[in-house]
Amino acid sequence: MPVTWIDQEELKLWGDHTASSALRTQAFSFGSSNTENDSNGGTGSAGANIRGLGNLSTLTLINGRRSGGNSAVGFQHGGFADLTLIPTAAIKEIEVATDGSSVAYGSDAVAGTVNLLLHDNFEGNRMDASFSNTSDGDASEKTFSFLSGQALSESTHLALLGSWYQRNSIEARDREISKDADRRSQGGQNQGSPTYPGRIQVDGQSMC
């Protein structure tokens, strides 16, 4: 079956701070999926979603072994594997089988299989950091990760790693198009709401 590989250099090149964000940029990922966002009803948990069939139809493996499900989200079949719990510094490569693997793994692999290969023989020290920001409003992203590995013997290898990620939110008031829906100064009404006081513009006319 066709297999797509995403190595650590690609994760670094495209600025992917989680395995889920790397998968969402691939052609086989489309449709709605859980993300690491915890706003607008999001939970902060993110799973793999191949061909838009849902998190519960895509099997996640870690070093070829079935990973545990996130029972806090989904509640069906134990939920899906939360990819945000695995630091990108720990990932050596991601293998994605984009055709159904239900014959080998069962019904939770009907959309495909994602296999996260973790570092098992890295030696040395590595640190990565990045910063990015928008030109309008402060929606900065900051990431930091480190990886340190050492071979203790022919059969024993020690690895220490971790990652940190922070992204500032963009509020409705940060954009001209959504910061106000009060038209009383124009002879209209205040059409804002406590949860979303936004507006859009169509052909120069403001509409809620």
UniProtKB/TrEMBL annotation:
Segments of this protein annotated with the region Disordered: 175-208
Keyword Transmembrane: yes
Compositionally biased region (Basic and acidic residues): 175-185
Record keyword RNA-binding present: no
Keywords, sorted A to Z: Cell outer membrane, Membrane, Receptor, Transmembrane, Transmembrane beta strand, Transport
InterPro entries, sorted: Plug_dom (IPR012910), Plug_dom_sf (IPR037066), TonB-dep_rcpt-like (IPR039426)
Membrane topology type: Multi-pass membrane protein
Cell compartment(s), UniProt: Cell outer membrane
Domain TonB-dependent receptor plug positions: 2-113
Family label: Belongs to the TonB-dependent receptor family.
Protein name: TonB-dependent receptor plug domain-containing protein
Organism of this sequence: Coraliomargarita algicola
